[in-house]
Amino acid sequence: MIDKILAGRYRLLEQIGMGGMAIVYRAVDLRTGHNVAVKVLRPEYNEDREFIGRFQREAEAASKMTHHNIVNLLDVGMDGENRYLVMEYVQGKTLKTVIQERGRLNAPLACQISIRILSALEHAHRNGIVHRDIKPQNILVHEDGHIKVADFGIARIADSATLTRGDNVMGSVHYFSPEQARGEGATAASDIYSTGVVLYEMLTGRVPFDGDNPVAVAMQHLHTRPADIQSIAPDVPTSVVQVCMKAMEKDPAMRYQSARDMATDLRAALEERGEQTTIPENEMGVRQPKPQVIGDKNEYTALRRKVKTAEKKRTWRIAADALLVLVVLTGIWFGGKAIYNQTIFTVKLPDVYGMNLQEATETLENLGLKTNPIMMTTDEVEPNQVFRQTPEATKTARKGDKIVLLVSSGYVPIKMPSVIGKTAEEATALLKENKIQNITWERAASGEVARGNVMNQSPAADELVNRDDPVVLTISYGVTTVPDLIGKTLQEAEEVLPKANLILQPSLKYVMTENAEEHGTIAAIVPEAGTRLAQETQVQLTLYRYPEAYCTAFVTVELEESESPLKVRLSIQAVSSNVEVETRYYTVEPGADRELEDTFDIPDARSYTCTVYVGETLQETKPLTAIKFSGEVENDE
Prior knowledge:
By secondary structure, this protein is of the alpha+beta class.
């Protein structure tokens, strides 16, 4: 695959990863020049319709997330049989590689990395997406220190049922939750358990459970308590150990119920200094002595004290009232400011579903919003149309926010089936079963392929086509030879041509002759006599006509009133024959003259009729009255 260009856009430069489901390449986007990561589905899944459908749905789910700690999805597509995801490229290493190179990480660094993983998971869980495969191999550490969680979308397909699918799953089994080990559905709590395992590995330099085979490891997830972290890394604070152990509880109900909660406790553990706060004595319940009044002579003093106390209370009450008013006014001011900001800086999202990309982009940009279009192949939506937006319509967003748009890049390419050798009916049914509708047929002469069977097809079998692409089938009509009809009459030609499986073209030509005996006989035939061609091909006859024997017929047809245009067909043929020797077509508009008039040449001395069709309905058949032509007659061009 190296140097292969997918979809005419992504040149694969080097393989940078491999898993049980896909192979990952570093590629360059030829349109932008930027490096991207392209994940190509393994070939064994290309024919699995259920898997392909899940892959498409998961790609759509991944497109709903835009977060600084997530490897964001840029594009989804198909090139030949290769289904691929295009993601932002992270220049750096996996967290697994970092642990292998450095050994255990110090607690503050391990906590900071975990907080960023949890930030990504909180965003995913809010969007209804469970990662299901959190492990250091899926955590990318950018060379500038940024943390990115990878494998959203594909990871959900690789569930616990893949215990026996090779080394990649052996890596995954070290990190999945007890409920995944039991084959139950994964939840947000499962991702938190896996994050706890990753934190354990960062703090200790090793996974909590290991064994000779995946089943042995899974059983430890179910029944065994991991080794005490501080027995391996004594410098890890107890508060950090407690967070890690709570995340790794066997019972999901005993774990953190959200990624945010776990991140909050990790932040608290980082901020803890272990210092005891000194509390003032009077805050610990020590009573202060009460002032006492001594004897009657102090009554006046006591009264004055009561008055002063009352005045102080009144002063404090006034101050409190003033403060309350100030608080209310401040609340009104800030509330008004919030309402103003809400009104000025936020917008209600319009519904851009069904718009083309340009129209949707203009609609959102006119509201001060940015767009992040992601092109995806789909059979359900016309190319270049928006079929999903995140956030959804009617939600609010701040001006400047980026709105993710899923846009159809076209229909899912279809592998062209082989129809050579099939009958035209069988070939048509097979193509339509594969959603190929734009089918045309060509006739060809063949003595080898049975009449009515497909001789050739374009595009060829196994080529990729879109459902609207034109498909041309060449159908064998057998082979026949044009008989020699020169000098024979038209009536004789009408009898000979059907025996040769040829059809008389209903538009005769004429050439003048000065020999009266040649009148009505055949002067030329196209293709010429002796030519091999497909059966049921039309041949063009040219008849001699002698000026004094040349006759015409005048035809008048009465049509009914109609509010829509009428398609009219006039056909003439000899009374003793069913061969149409002249056919003409007309369109009569509403309000036009209802009387249709025309003149036809009479090929020979037989009696002729004119059959009138309106649309596909036979209206009438009327005899033609021949009128001998007088005057000079010119040859047909």
